[in-house]
Amino acid sequence: SDKLKLAKELSDTVVYCRSVHFEGFDGSNPRPSNEMSSFSEGKALKLAQESGTSFIRHNSRQLSRIYPAGWRTDSSNYNPVDMWNVGCQIVALNFQTKGTEMDIYQGRFQENGFCGYVLKPDFLQDQNSKFNPRSITEGSWRMRKKLQVKVISGQQLPKVNKGKNSIVDPRVIVEIHGVHRDNDKKQTRVIDNNGFNPYWNETFEFDIDVPRLALVRFMVEDFDTSTKNDFIGQFTAPFPSLKQGYRHIHLLTKNGDPYPSATIFVRINILDA
């Protein structure tokens, strides 16, 4: 049969990485850096929990690709932050399923204009790293910060429940996603029947040990006493990208698109802890 002839220069550009089976963490015999191993989310999470530092050292030399578990027939997602925290480079999600995980994914790549690449912090690049995201010790990663968020007001929050007589009862939730001890969530009270200009004026404080791995998610929901609260909008940003002072946060829809005019007005203050 006829063989398709390809220019060698062209075929050389097709495969940069060689997929190999993961044989365990053997720091004494490093594998070539073009070898890449694939892990299901369960296997990767087990390694991250039991051997976080070894996983980081492995990922300083080689690529790791993480994919959703086969039982996720509903195309749901796992939390990508746990994988990023140990330096995994290719963290695959089900893009068709919107929710917190995809919001966080979109937020992570805010800082590079969505080019699809973010440089890992130095302590995740170090082949002799002593960092473990589940047990924070002293090191270059521990730059303790105190985040103060004053949620002041909202502007033109859309009505997501299409019921004829429905009026938005908004609440703001501020979440921290990062290393295990930094994860936190605080929420305002509910304002009844006002999506146009609700006023909260509530202040929250968060202690953050590893700011370079933290993301902050602002989420607004429509409270309902009898059914599940409706998602209105959110915005997620890497902690190091937060600008201080009075800010209008422009909310994104469930699909990640910007609303034309829905915002929340906040004051952000960052202090050394």
From TrEMBL:
Its EC number is 3.1.4.11. Keywords: Hydrolase, Lipid degradation, Lipid metabolism. Residues 125-253 form the C2 domain. The keyword Nucleus does not apply. It catalyses: a 1,2-diacyl-sn-glycero-3-phospho-(1D-myo-inositol-4,5-bisphosphate) + H2O = 1D-myo-inositol 1,4,5-trisphosphate + a 1,2-diacyl-sn-glycerol + H(+). It comes from Gekko japonicus (Schlegel's Japanese gecko). It comes from the Eukaryota. Signal peptide: none annotated. CDD domains: C2_PLC_like. Residues 10-125 form the PI-PLC Y-box domain. This is Phosphoinositide phospholipase C.
